[in-house]
Amino acid sequence: MASPKSRIPRSRRGMRRAHDALTRQPLQTCPTTGELMRPHRAYQAKDGAIYFKGKQITAPKFELEE
Hints:
This protein has 66 residues and is an alpha+beta fold.
């Protein structure tokens, strides 16, 4: 089994792990529907239609009741 030749100090270990933190994706509002969406991704709106870059890709699956 592999074992380290010498002990790694806490500071060196911390420097290596400095970039491992996960960041939360920023959310944007869709210009067409006004819903929150992740940038550069297609998303399904409340009416069941799929939108990408503010354009409708698929037809709505059902009508929303207002």
